[in-house]
Amino acid sequence: MSQEKKAKILVTxxxxxxxxxxxxxxxxxxxxxxxxxxxxxxxxxKDNLTHWANDPRLEIIEGDIRDFxxxxxxxxxxxxxxHQAAMxxxxxxxxxxxxxxxxxxxxxMHVFTAAKEEGIKNxxxxxxxxxxxxxxxxxxxxxxxGNVLSPYALSKAISEQYAALYTRNYGMTFxxxxxxxxxxPRQDPQGPYAxxxxxxxxxxxxxxxxxxxxxxxxxxxxxYVTNAVQANVLGLFKEAPKAEANVYNIACGYxxxxxxxxxxxxxxxxxxxxxxxxxxxxxxxxxxxxDISKSKTxxxxxxxxxxxxxLKKTYEWFVNEYK
Length: 323
Hints:
Elements: E1 7-12, H1 17-27, E2 32-39, E3 58-62, H2 68-74, E4 80-83, H3 90-95, H4 97-118, E5 122-128, H5 151-170, E6 173-179, E7 182-183, H6 196-206, E8 211-213, E9 219-220, E10 223-224, H7 225-236, E11 245-250, E12 256-257, H8 258-269, E13 276-278, H9 293-299, H10 307-320
Parallel strand pairs: 1-2, 1-4, 2-3, 4-5, 5-6, 6-11, 7-10, 8-13
Antiparallel strand pairs: 9-12
């Protein structure tokens, strides 16, 4: 990539957990000239980006993807997009389906449409393994989705449909990344809808018994955040000979039960805490395991950090840096 053609990239949700980790990598990439972050800071944190405060290649715009005029503004002069902004959490979506739809469907439509108006042809966006719904087939293959079980899952499935439609109608290329339980540094343990790994580490720090929903034998394909970042970078710089819309599983291809996760945390921390078991939550799926062969073949994706190593790095971050 020559000097005058260096990439100008918009990252929505760029101050959030995955987004800020992605921004770190993009600003170290010699192919990148500009990273523009759009974030409303409802979940994202300005502290996640302060170490780049003096870098002129980073622009931070505070705004909401639910405002179409904001999306139009931030797409000016951009040539590719990583769309990470979303209202996450299955349980939160069950409690508040209207806001979930507004942010994840209407907001995503605004980003896609603003990109179309600006002539941006390459968009990577965050989807989710939740689109597999009640399909009991393991491992999960991209073509084998089931009935979705939550408004969050439906919002992600709709986003995938819109991406395919915009490819057919407007000649845009979309790369949808179906994340499987991403974890790592900067994942916030605060609030009622935090994910299991930061919640467990927070419980250890505070000496409070962690909560496990159900018997703990449900399993997940826990995936360290650098793997999600790698997939975004691969998608952003993927050379597509023609417009196409693809979805890819982003995971490690191994599953761990919640009980096994807690045992691993005991070994890392030496805690003597015992978990409290609560009823299963509505909308949660029993098992999740990805087939990542398509991601390997089409995206050249290879997990760079396995679960055990990622868990150790995350624990070290919680001990040393989490405030």
